[in-house]
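During the second year of the project, the team shifted from modelling isolated chains to modelling whole assemblies. The rationale, set out in the original proposal, was that interfaces cannot be judged from single-chain predictions alone. As a representative example for this report, we include one of the complexes processed in the last quarter. Its constituent sequences, exactly as entered into the pipeline, are reproduced here:
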Amino acid sequence: MLYDNLSINDKGHLAIGGIDACDLAAEYGTPLYVLDEDQVRKNCQTYVAAMKKYLPEGSMPLYAGKALCFRGIYPVIDSEGMGADVVSGGEAATALSAGFPASKLFFHGTNKTDDEIANGVRQGIGCFVVDNTNELEVLGREAQAAGVVQKILLRVTVGLDPHTLEAINTGRVDSQFGVPIETGQALAFTRAALSTSGVEVIGFHSHIGSQIFEPDSFCDQVDRLLDFACSVRNELGFVAGTFNLGGGFGVPYVESDPKVDIAANIRAIAEHLEAGCAKADYPLPRILMEPGRSIVANAGVTLYAAGGTKTVEGYRSYVTVDGGMTDNPRYALYKSAYTVLNASRASAPADFLCTIAGRCCESGDRIAEEIRIAEPRRGDIIAVLTTGAYNFAMSSNYNRVLRPALVMVSQGKARLAIRRQTIEDLLALEL
Ligand code: LLP
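Output from the structure prediction step:
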């Protein structure tokens, strides 16, 4: 099995955290998102422990809610000692309504609205990650009106290409995110921020991309941030005490993907930072990271009911499922590979070559192509692994397909965390 929390039980069914996937499907219906809370906790603990052990004091991971944002995740993140980043008023409201402390929230976004800024300041959001000068002005004004000094990080682009997917590569100079160092604009941005009333600059943020496996790109990022921080110190006399490195490490989706040793990667980044700071005679900054995918992806499994098989002679065989791009658009968008198995026949040989197709009227609605699973009969439960991140978060009602329920499993017990969408929900907003 790809992950330790998955096993095959004595009925030959897939078990998630020890719970029979077919029982879950029977009880809660399909499609169904299953999230193993114990696995989420383990993932959090890996980051928290390694960042505490290797990085300067005060360093910590912030959960990037964009990967999977719903109320039930926030008590888990909070109790594991992590902060969180939010990218919209909707994500902030979700976290706050679940009791997550506002002081541990970092508010991101490339175009925060005036209302989001005003509400965030009043709600006591711990830190805003300011993307640009337009936003800086509004934030300064709102903070002064509220009579507070708002802590901020300035988002800069370090001009790096970490060789990940085009769509999730964000560190290049030509980017809509943040302000570039290379053109001199980041220095001007910092100068402006330091003289804006109502805000206190605590450091810099940059994000180079997602699904990065090696520490090297992060080390390059540290070099560039450190160089920039030294210029800021020389030119403006300001010493930044926080570097936020953005998203976390990649995760394996299929056996051939690299496995990541998160603790070893963090250690490598820490050693690089220490050497760089010693050379530049720069005080060690605390480091923040914003892992999303590596906190929830491998804790998630999606369960579908197979509609049956269809063989187009001379071409290929299709297995249809009762979900698809509406609950997981990642294959349609990025051709992302997934591990799929027949959860009802998990110990039978995986020898049926097929393409898994969703139910939308669109030939791109696929979950995986040319993979092998045990040949399913109509009603068999098909499991797609590693769907905890960017699945529910990116789901849609295309073709008016209803959003699935989400069940959390922990210590051998399951509980419904998000109920299945109904036709009434679907029509509720229409006047
Ligand atoms: N921080 C910032 C500023 C980000 O933009 C992102 C991801 C993260 C943190 C979290 O990165 P992670 O640890 O999850 O790699 N929809 C795409 C992923 C888009 C990621 C966008 N930003 C996908 O499904 O692969």
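The chain has a mean pLDDT of 96. The pocket of LLP is lined by residues 64, 66-67, 85, 108, 168, 170, 207, 210, 246-248, 290-294, 330, 390 (CB under 6 Å).
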